[in-house]
Amino acid sequence: MSFEIPKIEKSTFYLDVAFSRARKKASEKRSGLKVDRLKKSKTLEIEKVDAINDILNSKLAKIITSFPNFDNLTEFYTELVKTVIEYKELKKSLGAMNWGKNKIADFSKIYKVKIKRCNDLDVIRRFGKEYYGRISSVLKQISKNLEFLEESRRIMRDFPSIKDNLFTVAITGFPNIGKTTLLSKITSSKPEIKAYAFTTKKLNIGYMKKDYKKIQFIDTPGTLNRVNKMNNIERIAYLALKYCAHMMVYVYDLTEPYSLKDQKKLLKNLKDFDKPIIIYLSKTDILDKKTVNDFKKKNKVITDIDSLKESVLKEFKNY
Ligand SMILES: Nc1nc2c(ncn2[C@@H]2O[C@H](COP(=O)(O)OP(=O)(O)OP(=O)(O)O)[C@@H](O)[C@H]2O)c(=O)[nH]1
Ligand SMILES: [Mg+2]
After folding, report:
1. Protein residue with its CA nearest to atom 27 in ligand 1
2. Closest ligand to 198 CA?
3. Nearest to 104 by CA among 6, 192, 18, 4
4. pLDDT of residue 71
5. Beta strands at 167-172 and 247-252: parallel, antiparallel or unpaired
6. Domain extents for the chain?
7. Is the pLDDT of residue 223 over 70?
């Protein structure tokens, strides 16, 4: 599922494009017309109305179809849209595009008839001006909706692309403990890794191949420790855990400022998702052997990538 929606411009942009293309079309036609002034004026005004109608119609139709069909989304994406975007407003704004399209088509039809029937040059020009006024006013009425759609597009652009037909493993734990590094070691993904917390601003996804099958890994940022105060990325991570993950890898880090007590508490919270959890201890290369061994004695924990892959594959076989 991809949410690559093209940029949505301001209403004045579409208006400018439509009007200037209409003027261009009319002026191209003008020199070739060998008829009297009245006929010429009628033909050119109608040409402009048609051009404006065509352009705006296709622009607005494109906006509507560039958004996914919200009735056909998986549970994860439906919840995601509803959680991070004002869903009602989004539906309303897409509806407004349709309204605008119809209004423009109606006015175009009406003014074409008016112009066709008129035999007065000044009145034809007045109709032309009136028509532009009507179209501007329609665009003005949907300008807030266009802005809202652009805002939504920017949010949806960062939606993760999660496949819903693959066995999926979520990598969880506190910030800066090595989740993304782990993802890049297990999968062929090349995500950004930095030496400070909260590097991961969107969900990184990677794939591990086993024979002809693929296992999907999601690197979930944020602490997921504060359900009521979650920001957007944490909400997305939470929903991915709830709806997409079949199991989790929980990463412990004994080198970081986060206390073991807090890390244990987060693990306990994650158990509420009721999914198999494998525990992995990161950064063992900079821990002394005794610390690692003591921790291993007290906790069922994996410390190397191969064993971790093996444990994941075991769960995958049971799935
Ligand atoms: N020595 C050592 N450093 C590691 C290891 N894993 C990660 N690091 C370092 O720890 C820092 C954080 O690693 P990330 O993989 O970005 O951690 P993260 O949990 O994804 O961080 P956020 O996305 O900010 O939550 C980086 O400087 C890494 O190079 C490891 O196994 N050994
Ligand atoms: Mg990360």
Report:
1. 195
2. 1
3. 18
4. 87
5. parallel
6. 11-157, 167-318
7. no
Exposure string over 85-98, b if 16+ CB within 10 A, otherwise e: beeeebeebbebbe
Tokens for 296, please give them: 């291993």
| Same topology between domain 11-157 and domain 167-318 | no
Distance between CA atoms of 183 and 128, rounded to whole angstroms? 62
Residues 181-207 pLDDT 10s: 999 999 987 777 776 666 666 788 999
Which pair of structure tokens corresponds to residue 215?
Answer: 């296992």
List, in order, residues 6 or more apart from 276 with CB less than 8 Å away.
246, 247, 248, 315
Report pTM.
Answer: 0.80
Answer yes or no: is the C-beta of 200 below 6 A from any ligand 1 atom.
yes
Q: Which two tokens stand for residue 308?
A: 């971790």
Element (H, E) at 207: strand 204-210
Greater confidence (65 vs 212) lies with 65
Nearest CA to ligand 1 atom 23: 200
- Its CATH class, for the domain covering 11-157, is mainly alpha
Does residue 170 line the site of ligand 1, with CB under 6 A?
no
In the CATH hierarchy, which fold is given to the domain comprising 167-318? Rossmann fold (3.40.50)
Distance 233 CA to ligand 2 centre (A): 12
- Give 61-113 pLDDT, tens digit per residue: 999 999 998 888 999 999 999 988 999 999 999 999 999 999 999 999 999 99
- Nearest-atom index, ligand 1, CA of 176: 21
Q: Residue 2 pLDDT > 80, yes or no?
A: no
CB of 224 within 8 A of CB of 238? yes
278 lines ligand 1 (CB under 6 A): no
